[in-house]
Amino acid sequence: MDELATKQKETVLNLWLDQVSRKQKIDCVFELEMWIKCFDRFFRTKNQPSHDNEFKHFLLKDFREELTVVRDVILRMSSLANEIMTQERSNLLQFDRYLSNYLKRDYVMDDFCSRLLTQPTPDDSLALLLDSLADLRYMIDELVKLPEVTFQTFTTIGKLINREIKQCRYIEMLVAFKFKVHFDRVENPSIAALIKHIKNEGLRQDVAKVFLELFRLLRYLEFVEKDLTFDRPLKNSLLIFSLINSELRMLFDFLETRICKHPDVSAPMVESLDATIFALSQEIKKVFSHELVGLVYLRQAPPIYARVENSHGLLKNSLQQSIVQVSQVFDSNFDGKKIFSALVTRLEQSKKLLSEIGALSTFIGSFEKMQDQQALPVLLKTFDAFRESSLRYLMYKDWEEYENFVEEVRTSKTPESLRFTLHRFRIFLDALSCYDLRLGAECLVMSS
């Protein structure tokens, strides 16, 4: 019985998505679904940026800034719902609101509410969603005027938002089904051929789901990229990053419990998948334990842009690398350039990092010999340039040590203390070069 009901729901949903596709509004539905999922994840602290998973501070935190971002996303969702809704229904909804707001008669309100709650059509669900979003926006407007929004209030608002959304029949169906043919398909012929050649049907379906998930996450990042390109407000991307964080953790679990434990997946294949999971988890840590921490409180545009751009770049590159590496697990001759023509492989990253670490170490060595305090601003600019170009390729554990050395150089009071700090900094960089040389060799072995 449950299976029959699920099939019926899926049929109803697909009929609606077919209709939306014919009106060329399917991209709006995809974006709306993404923001709805974002609300489900953003209010959970484990998906939020935090220094090394220290979540205790959330209990004492003021969440007014987060709610302000949520309010902006609600506005975007309202715009999307209006765009998806048919023009006739949109006009009717505006007239209904006029009646309910200005006439204030019980029979008018009852008729308006009953039509919303029964939701016989997708437009009725969108109308109910719009009504709920308007109420939530008003509530948040009042909350952010308070001296403080506590953790309990923040999480309660999250539960309320998600409860309201689940009342919308078609919207609830949209979120309930993970993959839809209208959104999710493996269009790259090389990937499609690779999947087709996996003999075991169960494994073939599971691998297809992994690729669908990874490509969907890349599509989420496209919304961040558009905001960066068109100079739009960027703090909304926090919700998208939170969604990606959550989805990746579930994907890791799926890879470990389903793919890696399948009898047709050999030990070397498992080792390669484990390496992919580890590398991607390190990039997530860089983003959520460093780049995005405190972003919500920033006011100046340049640092906001820099952090969002770095986070987007780290995740995009790592997801592309992961797609290629998973492909190579099932086809060792797979060429990643067939999917991503501009892909920078980890071997290429390692070569670039080695070159820049070597150049930085040499520059520091020459500065040690000069002992010219007047040239210190030039040295600090060189440190900043390395941070912007190559720091992202270091292991996350080395980021903090690099930043500590830079701060020591910046605050050195005497030529002797500066020279000693630079000497230690150069030794640290030389040690990184040795480590990265080994890492490059490992990358070469994996790619051969």
Q: Can you give me a brief rundown of this structure?
A:
By secondary structure, the protein is mostly helical. The chain has three domains: 175 residues, no CATH class; 155 residues, Four Helix Bundle (Hemerythrin (Met), subunit A) (Up-down Bundle); 101 residues.
Question: Could you explain how this protein is built, in words?
Answer:
The protein is mainly α and 448 residues long. The protein has three domains: 2-176, no CATH class; 189-343, Four Helix Bundle (Hemerythrin (Met), subunit A), CATH 1.20.120; 347-447. Helix content is 75%, strand content 0%. The protein contains 17 helices and no strands. Helix 2 crosses helix 11 and helix 10 (201-229) packs antiparallel against helix 11. The N and C termini lie far apart (52 Å).
Please name the defining characteristics of this protein.
448 residues, 75% helix, Four Helix Bundle (Hemerythrin (Met), subunit A), mainly alpha, 17 helices, disordered C terminus
Largest sheet: none
Strand content: under 5%
Distance between the termini: 52 Å
Number of domains: 3
SSE blueprint:
Layout: H1 2-22, H2 26-42, H3 64-84, H4 87-103, H5 106-118, H6 122-143, H7 151-166, H8 169-176, H9 189-196, H10 201-229, H11 237-259, H12 267-291, H13 301-330, H14 346-370, H15 376-389, H16 396-411, H17 415-447
Helix pairs in contact: 2-3, 2-7, 2-11, 3-6, 5-6, 10-11, 10-13, 11-12, 12-13, 14-15, 14-17, 16-17
